[in-house]
Amino acid sequence: MSLDTPRAESCPERLTAHEARQRLDHERASRLTQLRAVDEAGQDAPEQVLSAQKGAIEQVLKEITAAFARVEDGTYGICRGCSQPIPVERLKILPYTRFCVPCLRGAA
Q: Which superfamily, per CATH, for 17-107?
């Protein structure tokens, strides 16, 4: 394809609430599956490792719940740092994110 050829489909500026909920539902289901797997692996791994894994998964589940609340109150997809829209590409990869990449880098 030539660089001069227009793209057949353009990427929307924001996800719809329905799309956001679908992506968040998928993420929640994935994390719950991971949590079950960690629980089932209980005897095969050191307790410290399991505790750290469970803690990380539980933190993401909290972030997903918070993202659902942002969908409901209309602030989903708006960066908490700069108040600008978070690019759709980022939301597709990490649907529960609260920050755009520049603000996330600045906060680190």
A: DksA, coiled-coil domain (1.20.120.910)
Q: What is the pLDDT of residues 9-44, one digit of tens each?
A: 445 578 899 999 999 999 999 999 999 998 887 666
Residue 50 in contact with residue 17, Cβ under 8 Å? no
Residues in the chain: 108
**Using CA atoms, how far apart are residues 15 and 43, in angstroms rounded to an integer?**
42
Which tokens go with 60?
């993401």
The kind and range of the H/E element at 96 are none
pLDDT of residue 12: 58
Q: For residues 82 and 57, is the Cβ–Cβ distance under 8 A? A: no
Residue 64: CB atoms within 10 A of its CB come to 21
* Closest by CA position to 96, among listed 106, 105, 86: 86
Q: Any idea where the domains of the chain sit in the sequence?
A: 17-107
Residue 97 CA to residue 59 CA, distance in Å, equals: 12
